[in-house]
Structures are given as C-alpha cells and as structure tokens.
Amino acid sequence: MPEDYREDAAVRRQLDLCNALTVPDKIIDIDLTPDIKTYIRLSGADLTGIADLEPFKNGWVVVPEDILNPYAYAVSIAKKLDDGIINTIIDGPTPEYAGHYRDINATLDTISAQTAVWITEKGYKARAIPASHIADDDNLLGNISHKAVARMAGIGWQGKSLLIISPEYGPRIRLATILTDMPLSADEPIRNRCGRCMECVKACPASAIKNISTDSRYETREDAIYLNRCFNKVSEFKARPGIGALICGVCVKVCPFGKKKSSQKRVAAARGLKDKDALIP
Description:
Strand order of the largest sheet: 1-2-6-3
Radius of gyration: 19 Å
Order of helices and strands: HHEHEHHEHEEEHHHHH
Strand content: 5-15%
Structural class: alpha+beta
Number of domains: 1
C-alpha cells in the first residue's frame, strides 16, 4: 500500500473519531477545546487557537455591530504559505503567489466551513468567516479582523506591518475565523518580539510602514501604516497581468521570523516559555 494512502487513511480514521464525539447536555460544564483543536488540525490547518470575544464586544470594530451577539469565542485557523513561492517575491506579487494566495484562502474556507458544520452537529452555534471576505467595501473591513482574533488566540503577535507573526512560520500564514458559543478555553496573546528589526519597514515598496511597535494591539490600522499608501500600491499590483487581487507579499517575504524554520526551543522561547530576551531568529 502506498505510503501517502496509508497516511490519508489514518487521517480519515482520526476525523471519523472526532465526528463521532457525543457532547453531553449543554448544562454540564465541559471544555471542548482539545476536541475542536484536534478536528481543525486533522482537517489540514497548521495552527489554531481560541480567542475570547469579550474585548471585541466592548468597542473593537466588527461588521455589523451585532454579529457577535450569539457567540462567546472565536476560533483562529492558520495555514502556512509555501516558502518556495514566497521566496520568488522581489518587489511585488508574482502570478504564482497570486494563485497560491487564492488556493490557500479556498483551503481555509473549506476547513472553517467544515468545522462550523461539525460544531452545529454537536448542538452549538457557529459561523465561519471566510479568509478574504470584505463586509465593508468603503473601509476595507471584514466582519471581524482575522489578525485581531489570531493575536488574541495566541497564533502570533501583530508586527509593524500589521501582519500576524507566528513563532513557527513568521508572517507566512493566511487566516480564517469561526465564531461559536461552544464551551471552550481561550488562549493568551504572546509577547511582541519585533524589537528593533526594520526589515519590513525598509523593504515596503509603498514606504507605508511607520516603524511603530506595540506591546498589545494597534487601536487603528493607521497607527502602524499609512493605509492610503498601502492601498494605492496593492491596487497598482492588482492591475498587473496574472495578479487580480489586492496583495503585495514583500513584507511577508522579508520578515526574519519566516525566513528559516524555527527550532522547538526558539518557538518555546517566542511563546514565552523561556529565553525571553531573544528577539529575532
């Protein structure tokens, strides 16, 4: 039997076990965090975490304003981008990167949609937020910020470029979100480790990154970047043959955290377990 077939069969068996999970009556105190994380990872995600929605309900931007009312948690899902494709980027997106960007978004949307179905089959509410959905065209906003959710879920910190930088893959990830009332335990944000690094600032083709760091979150996107400069540049890129999307990829490529695979020791340090003085790989 081919090796890849055996691996696929093993994954299917694990997913069947997750699908067979029977949730007791919801009045019983139960934490389903391990179950949902296992299901999401076996569905193909590279990283996942849980964010408490309470801060979002207290003034953080969501569209529409009442979208979070039925839910208590947001599940962040991350999928790694291909290093070989990212490394071909020089001063703007390539057609290969544009296609990969769409493929990864589609994969994330499939994982989040399947997980939302899995949650509802267990008797809870769920809403999948697609990877690249725009709910407010005038302000270029989604229903909820995938980056804000990912930061609160401990996927990574928010870098000077506004990208989420994970200890495992740097900013070479794409994100999707699921809103739910399933009983879960929220993860904690991790410390910003950009330090004095200016690689994204120097490389930005729009000169849009202000070189301002944060210990927590940016109140607005304008706190970190010149949004109009960024939008104008990605609009220019979108018009190029084979692109067709508001993407760039330069800051994704140049970030030191994404350029080489982090060791388990370095990932543990970045997640605050030890060696808190190390800044960049």
